[in-house]
What does this fold into?
Amino acid sequence: MISATVAKSATLPDHAWHSHICTPEEGPGACLLIDGNDTVDGMKSQFLARLLTTQLLAASATLAPAGDIDREWEAEIAENLDENTSDGEVLWCQAANSRFLTLFTGQTANLAKGAAIILHGMGAHPDWPEVISPLRTSLPELGWSTLSIQLPVLAPETPVADYGNTLQEAGQRTGAAVRLLHDMGFSHIVIIGHSFGAAIGADYLAGSNGNDILAFVSIGIQSQKFLNPTLDILARIEKIKIPVLDIYGSRDLENVTATVADRRLAARKGGNHAYQQVE
It folds into this structure.
């Protein structure tokens, strides 16, 4: 197992390690100002400019927080996991303007097989007791090191549809996790996603990001039609070219079971003959 000390002293690139938390810039941004002459037309222009600016700032203040990532809640989660996690090592990763926590657990088998990036569900964390923690702590016994990463979370009172606004940063964090594992010497990397984490994995792999990923394991992936902005899961599956294991339960959520055949057909349409479903 790679200890936290070794990980800190490793020659990781700036995008994978930082010693300080980066916080996004705050404030409404630059204000609009139009100079007017001492004429009626000039006064009208100035009045309209101020009115427009006021309305834009008011709309920004009203709408923006709904989809904003809750950095304070993430910090509380990270602090709790850092203090109380006994299985695995806490490693910090950097993506875009955010520093996020990951839990690394090295393989303990006689034969090392590679590393698995684990993506949790909506509003959860890297050691979530259902699915995530059992996976990240049991796979090392089978030769797979695991890196369970913290994905963006929203405030509990935020509508779940707003999680669509987190997809871009979630993809950036997934990419940063891949780079971190490469820097740690791993070449065989798989991605395992549960629920919304599976949707994030599919969204990430639908682009050109699948070239250095060995396979994708999707657990209980939903249609995600409720997201805003929307996410077309079937279109994403159609674009994935690496082997996919689609796992779902017979008594899973309706959004999962209702699209089983559609997901299979989407993979076939995309020419992915290495797509397999397991109930």
About this structure: Residues 1-66 have pLDDT under 50 and may be disordered.
